[in-house]
Amino acid sequence: MVFDPYLLMKEALDEAGKGFAEGEVPVGALVADEGGGIIARAHNQPLSLKDPTAHAEILALRRAGSACGNYRLEGATLVVTIEPCPMCMGAAVHARVGRLIFGASDPKWGAAGSLYNLAADSRLNHRIEVLAGIMAEECLALMQDFFHSRRG
Q1: Choosing from 15, 24, 57, 83, which is the catalytic residue?
Q2: Is 57 a catalytic residue?
């Protein structure tokens, strides 16, 4: 399989759409192997699981660890529709994810360059390559549609 960040982001957007349909904030995430094969996928579920840590990234990382039989996901890519928060970036660093691809930036919570930059923090024992802005307009539009539908 050819590694295609746009194809992976489309899959993450599909996952985010599932969250939207369930009334969750529509964030989708997946973990891919070095060749671009999807190991795990998830969408936000803190409301349905009654779990503040049930962000899409955390759930996808947990599932990927289970699928790989190891909490270390060296060489893996985490793909997320919205820039991860500090909790999710911390989990990605702990998992030794090699690359992060995200769609829309999050100036209020983003921890991969917007508010914080945990991916490149030299004080931590692992750095993550970041590819930002993949299908950012589509990712942002889904979030805006969700919040407009909640207010309207």
Answers
A1: 57
A2: yes
State the DSSP code for 96.
Answer: T
Measured between alpha carbons, how far is 112 from 2 in angstroms, rounded to an integer?
A: 25
| Per-residue model confidence (pLDDT) at position 150 | 86
Compute the distance between CA of residue 151 and CA of residue 60 in angstroms, rounded to an integer. 29
Q: Write down the pLDDT at residue 1.
A: 58
Q: Kindly report the CA angle at 96 between 24 and 82, in degrees rounded to 5?
A: 30
Amino acid at 46: P
Q: Which two tokens stand for residue 100?
A: 């992060």
pLDDT tens-digit profile of 13-60?
A: 999 999 999 999 999 999 999 999 999 999 999 999 999 999 999 999
Backbone angles phi, psi at 126, to 5 degrees: -150, 140
- Please say if the pLDDT value at position 2 is more than 90: no
Strand partners, 101: 79, 131
Is 60 within 8 Å of 40 (Cβ atoms)? yes
Q: C-alpha angle 57/73/14, rounded to 5°? A: 35
Name the helix (H) or strand (E) containing 28. strand 28-32
Paired tokens of 131: 């590819």
